[in-house]
Request: fold
Amino acid sequence: MEIQGQELAPTSLFAAARDAFAEAVGRARRSVIHDRLVGGRHVRLHFANEALVPILTPALAHHPHPPPESVPQLTVHVWDSLSTGLRASPLDWLPEDLPPTPEVRVSDGSMLLVFTTTSGILRLLNLPEKVALYWAADPQQVSDVERSTPFLLFLQGLLRGPETQVVHGAAVGTPEGCVLLAGRGGAGKSTSALACLVAGMRYVGDDYCLLSRRPEPRAFNLFNSGKLNGDSLARLPQLIPHVVNPARKPGEKAVFFFREDWGDQLAPSLPIRAVLLPRVTGGRDTTLRPASAAEGIKALAPSTIFQLTGPGATTFRMLADFLRCVPCHHLLVGTDLGQIPRAIGRLLADSDGRPPAPDPIRNPDALTR
Reply:
């Protein structure tokens, strides 16, 4: 739920939270700094102590370090109350009558506050000051999904521009180019992307990537992670040994980090040759058929804009312009997962982006064998 106005006074809360972080650093006496270049921007992660470092850094650990003379374009201050021994918490400054929703967003124009009520994690983003604050009561409250896409809200705000946008989509391909997979949750984006990774293709991301429109459409990697539900994981057994949360609760997704075992397949960026709209059919074969730009914007825009840190009209126009320049296809996903990378590979091999054949693509070397 998004609230406009001053009900929660994000400016005052930001100042108090910044003071609380300084107190946490003083108590810990051993803060930790990680500097990374993400999407071409220098991001500094400043942890009050070690407690949240192994939880929130693995998904970003593959990004290069900035040069020594570089100045951070965003500094994220990270702390928790349990390990630092702070009695006061940012929750003390929030009103007791918050709306009963999983997430509360408050914006006063220059600053954004997001409080996730289910986990009790508070995020504050102040782009004019190039500072963000991330607080958790207890490191164990950080969900597995959060571990796989840490600081997503902050990266969305930092990387957003006239020609760039963090989008809710997957991207996989070959050294020559990639496809962007767009669609609602459950459409088959992650399954398709991770089937391609297992088959040896280049991997940009399974859920989020940075889209750049100039000088050519290009997808940039953000995280070296992936997520699958239990049914899809059972169909990609090659990934089972790499699950980092084997003791997850029923219904929670399995999480993977790919830096060590698939690092050579992680692509910093790839030019986008086509947009695919996956849909699970229940049949065996995977096929392609043409889709319109309007169908592409319907698949890509809603979830991307819903998660924005600001107004979405500019982003909608940017996505619409992008989809008018790149061919769109429906990817009708079958149960034989080995056909997915074959279908995508054949599409990318075709110079003009048209589906290479009208018949089902049959792969005798199915991934599930």
Notes: The CA atoms of residues 79 and 135 lie 5 Å apart. The mean pLDDT is 87.
